[in-house]
Amino acid sequence: xxxxxxxxxxxxxxxxxxxxxxxxxxxxxxxxxxxxxxxxxxxxxxxxxxxxxxxxxxxxxxxxxxxxxxxxxxxxxxxxxxxxxxxxxxxxxxxxxxxxxxxxxxxxxxxxxxxxxxxxxxxxxxxxxxxxxxxxxxxxxxxxxxxxxxxxxxxxxxxxxxxxxx
Length: 166
Known about the structure:
The radius of gyration is 15 Å and the shape is globular. Strand 7 and strand 8 (118-128) form a beta hairpin. It has an eight-stranded antiparallel beta sheet. It has helices at 30-38, 43-46, 71-80, 132-145, 147-165; strands at 4-6, 17-26, 50-55, 64-69, 84-90, 94-101, 104-115, 118-128. The two termini are 26 Å apart. Helices cover 34% and strands 38% of the residues. Residues 1-12 have low confidence and may be disordered. Helix 1 (30-38) packs across helix 5.
């Protein structure tokens, strides 16, 4: 799988953002991938950067939740971070959330689009605010670096579910 990375800093003031967009075509329909995205408790099954994820209510725009990164970052995050808020949830298509970070926010968008041969999976992460450079070093870089692993695991989960349902 080959990921494409783009940058777009139009969301915040110039110089105050770090944005990376990763794209990959996955050989499954969006409906096969959606269950793993929509079930936040399963995020650690496909996201190598997380040890836990939970929602504080039903999966819907406005619901809050908590993502726990792996290792030392997770121990610190669990003690000091505020919960994220789902900012968009469109069945079989998109999940977006905003995680407050010191003096700013991390916006994460996961998008599924049906294409010939499967689904285009897009991950867009934006870190904004004066602490963005620190947050890129702490978490942002890994979110982008591990995109290929996320893609492979999502396909594995979708394939396993399809085999189970057959």
